[in-house]
Fold:
Amino acid sequence: MKIHEYQAKEIFQKYGIPVPFGKVAYTPEEARKIAEEIGEPVVIKAQVLVGGRGKAGGIKIAKTPDEAQEAASKILEMDIKGEIVKKVLVTKAIDIESETYLGIIVDRGSKKPVIMVSAAGGIDIEEVARETPEKIHKFAVDPSTGLLLHQARELCFKIFEDPKIATKSSAILLKLYEAFIKSDASLAEINPFVVSTTGEVWALDAKINIDDSSLYRHEDIEAMRESQSIGTDEATEIEAKQKNLSYVKLEGNIGCVVNGAGLAMATMDLIKRYGGEPANFLDIGGSSSPEKVTNAMDILLRDKNVKAVFFNIFGGITRCDDVAKGIIEAISKMSISLPIVVRLTGTNESLARDILTLNQVPGTALIPASSMAEGAKKVIELVKKTVNK
Amino acid sequence: MSILIDENTKVVGQGITGRDGAFHTKKMLEYGTKVVAGVTPGKGGQKVDGVPVFNTVKEAVEETGANTSCIFVPHKFAVDAIYEAGDSCIELIVCISEGIPALDMVKAIKFLSDKKVKLIGPNCPGLISPEKCKVGILPGNIFKKGSIGVISRSGTLTYEIATHIVSTGLGISTCIGIGGDPIIGLKFIDYLKLFEKDEQTKGVVLVGEIGGQDEEEAAKYFKEYCKKPIVAFIAGLTAPPGKRMGHAGAIISGGTGTAKEKIEAFEKVGIKVAKEPEEVGTLMSMQI
Structure:
């Protein structure tokens, strides 16, 4: 789960990481008031979950409250990579002496938390990793001891010449580690971590991604989600998750309903390979009750681009006849006018096919397919016909 | 031969009295797996399908000689089940449970690292050595004994591919679902090592997906050490970046972990990559 910068900064403050004073504004007038309160030059920052907001014009400096209001009016409602800006962070501007990078990830390779520091701060760290990987210093933490003071110091002495700054920064790196562990983050970074012209250190930006699997024990973080994504594709994805479905919307017109994440991805890939465009990723998981199928169809059909649906079910432990019953029950309830191609393979597949042929629902075309490839080809043909009509 | 499990494997089911635990214990017994014990704290003395239930794994191991644990415990308690198995002289832990926080796994794996125990999963369907033993939730009926090892990050996609391997007339030595989480126990290269030494195995099918660098590592390992051919399939060519595709570990982050990169890494070292699941069997028969 991604959270906004201002939310990540709230977490930082809880752990004693210095963050410049700031508040969130939802209107230009509010931005003006906050700027007045600060009484010094401020930075207006779009609060969006996508990256690259700086390049998109989502960050502006304002010297006066007037300028702050104007900047906020430009940034609010801005479309940054498909995300509409609903709020801005108005924060005290800092005179920057140097910019560095401090970050922590859960590293899949070493199976440990890995600390990354770099003197090349303020720019996209992935770009640094690609272009000049030697500028990033890494350290894999032993999870049984956690990050130790001398380890943090050693890393900070690699990126700071001034011993005072290096010492100060290592204390902050330890706090970042604590915030990372206690929040169950998968990533926590300060980019840029700045030294001001007056010798203070600040987390100018904050990014924290939380491990979704840990949210059951972080109600406070889960609550941050509510204010984020109403009416967006992401809101639908979250709703799907609450119904034990895994859904990701794509741009195409062939709806996919699949059991299993790997098979669901392979289904999308196959549709694309045969010249179609998948409308979504949708994994209905192991047990496929009629309710699950109905929920899946409900979510899928909110996407008005969908012209046909492809059920690709490999019944291993799941019985195909159960799934077939679920499909019939779901479409009888929902009056669906789109054609549905159904591929059911595995346990009780012939029984399942009988159920589908004997219980045709008027108005919904159910087309059987005997393999994944055949199903993909059939559904693409159907969509071509509908589009050409 | 086969790897990790065979007719001598003795299984203890952790969480055996739960809905999934009981259901799959029955399926494992039907397949011929020696499920010798179950564990549910507080339910010691009961029986599930004739299998005695104990309060602790230690007790189960002492009484029955179980050497492999299969974990069906709900996610909040699953990591402790891993620790308990690790503390009880178990040789192989197969963790089916899904939804364990990554940082919990980081600690658990560190804990297991100085013990003689292997961990498969979490968030995996388990493994099967056809006609000998299955541990987990894979559907036994689709597998036939033979000479192909299968390692996969997925569940149903593995079954799909196994079906195509079997339909080309080949069989399977051992098939393992290694888990869909970012932090898992054994990884592709660990299994490649085992298959390379296994006499029954003549070739390996590797089913990968977006996220992480394990496929790239496997490609490097293959180039250095493997004599047996590999056929690969990678899911997620159409997956958008930054989105988790069902599995916690299936995410393209920071532009890395794409299917394209993985396919290129394999092809660069001479591993054939199937363009669709149906091709896997045919490509493998041409290789061996």
Remarks:
- The two ends of chain B are 18 Å apart (CA to CA).
- The mean pLDDT of chain B is 96.
- The first strand of chain B starts at residue 10 and ends at 14.
